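quick q for whoever's on today - can somebody do inverse folding on this one?? i tried earlier but teh output was garbage lol. tokens:
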């Protein structure tokens, strides 16, 4: 339950409650699933900087944004730059190739979770080459490959059958990118009374296929799945990154990026 303080959402309580649920779900996860404790990415899209500062003040460091322009504004906000020096920004929205250069130079950009095809990967790889030239301390850009597990036309992501090939392209043809694993958004509103979430099953299959093809330890390949309404179930399946927004920041109005 979200508690409101002085008319605003209590972000600190929301994060604490979410972390407690992560701990509980992780403790219940089958021992046969060899995966690390999930990392929380607090999804702050459409929410004001003040709420991000609240979350950061109690130790939350990873924040996710869906819109390029909004991330640009927040990452360059003087309050964020001054008070959140260790913040890690995760871009979790659809990234068009023509906006790559707007995002790669942002301060504290940590990961692009939505690399959905080879063209985008190649563009990011070339752009990061320039970033490294200007900032030698910048080694590789962290990325995940996005997989469209639900098959919905409105969802981005490579098809599950192509996941291994895209992973191969990123790891073998894009030396400036470090591919940490896989990500999906999945279909919203799955009814767990009908059975397991097929999107989670599909993503874990892609994860296993990649691990087998590249002889990777399954515990070393990240899985980003699960949001406010299903992150507990996602953890039970093997998620290592959960992206939680409304449970922390409260409900949000829909926003379309121009």
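ok took a stab at it. sequence:
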């Amino acid at each position: 339950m979200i508690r409101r303080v002085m008319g605003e959402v209590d972000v600190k309580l929301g994060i604490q409650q979410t972390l407690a649920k992560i701990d509980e779900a992780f403790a219940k996860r089958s021992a046969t699933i060899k995966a690390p404790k999930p990392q929380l990415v607090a999804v702050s899209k459409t929410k004001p900087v003040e709420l991000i500062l609240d979350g950061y003040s109690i130790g939350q460091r990873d924040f996710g944004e869906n819109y390029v322009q909004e991330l640009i504004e927040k990452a360059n906000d003087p309050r964020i730059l001054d008070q959140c020096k260790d913040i890690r920004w995760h871009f979790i929205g659809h990234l068009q190739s023509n906006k790559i250069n707007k995002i790669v130079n942002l301060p504290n950009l940590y990961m692009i979770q939505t690399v959905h095809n080879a063209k985008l990967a190649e563009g990011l790889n070339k752009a990061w080459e320039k970033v490294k030239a200007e900032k030698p301390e910048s080694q590789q850009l962290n990325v995940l490959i996005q997989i469209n597990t639900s098959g919905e036309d409105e969802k981005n992501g490579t098809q599950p059958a192509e996941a291994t090939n895209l992973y191969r392209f990123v790891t073998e043809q894009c030396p400036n990118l470090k591919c940490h694993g896989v990500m999906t958004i999945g279909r919203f509103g799955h009814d767990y009374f009908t059975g397991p979430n097929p999107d989670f099953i599909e993503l874990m299959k892609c994860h296993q296929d990649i691990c087998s093809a590249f002889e990777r330890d399954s515990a070393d390949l990240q899985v980003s799945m699960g949001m406010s309404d299903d992150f507990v179930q996602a953890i039970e399946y093997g998620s290592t990154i959960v992206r939680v927004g409304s449970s922390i920041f409260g409900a949000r109005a829909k926003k379309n990026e121009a």
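fwiw The two ends are 33 Å apart (CA to CA). also The first helix runs from residue 11 to 28. so keep that in mind when u check it
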